[in-house]
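Work Package 3 (structural annotation) set out to generate three-dimensional models for the target panel prioritized at the project kickoff. During this period the team completed the workflow that converts sequence records into discrete structure tokens, so that structures can be stored uniformly alongside our sequence database. As a representative example, we reproduce one entry of 241 residues exactly as it appears in the project archive.
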Amino acid sequence: MSALPAPVRLPDWVDPSAVFAAVADGGEHVFWLDAGPGADRGWSWVGTGTVEEHPERVRGTDCSSHAPLAEGGRFRGGWVGWLGYEDAAARAGAPRAASDTTVPSERWLRVDHLIAFDHAAREVWVFSPDQGAFVPPDREAAPPDRVEAAEPVPVRARHEPGEYAALVERCRDAIREGDAYQLCLTTRFETPVAVDPVAAFGRLRSSTPAHHGGLIVSGVHALASASPERFLEVADGLVRT
């Protein structure tokens, strides 16, 4: 993996949502790791990448040593992507559902261009051979705070409301019995209608703001998240999860 160029700080603050709108316009493999609307602390990252054809390179990354943190924040390139629950459960020897063959269970984008936003310092750092390539001409431009509601679309649910409520009670019973201390009950909705992932994430971000949101768009696949948790971080010889 080639290293990204040293970062260059922009002279003015620009809203990450405006930058991502410019990056996503015509971009095939783009991502936005979001500190949330109106964030006054934390970091956001926007960028583009190339699909990693050899995922074992990601899993084989040596995390035993790190360069000291410098200007531009702690994330300075590498990969952005996802891992499916089913594959992880299989490696742990846990029961799992059948994998969805229509969606890649693992997808990594090797970062080619990266823009880092320090919300507390109101600074923007660009890791790219062309620092101006992904910055909107109007740096004050940003999508409106209110996001228009989408037209209703037909959906098919995996569980009916009553069935899902019963599953929640089964989870509570398992916790009360001491079989588990935390359970994540998932469900699924399908629609035959094409959905714009960028617009859908905008509505998710507006209605369910989270300080660790994110959107990855890779070809015809996309992952949108509004999860306020740090899954894993390795820094200064420590692993945090």
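The longest strand covers residues 106-118.
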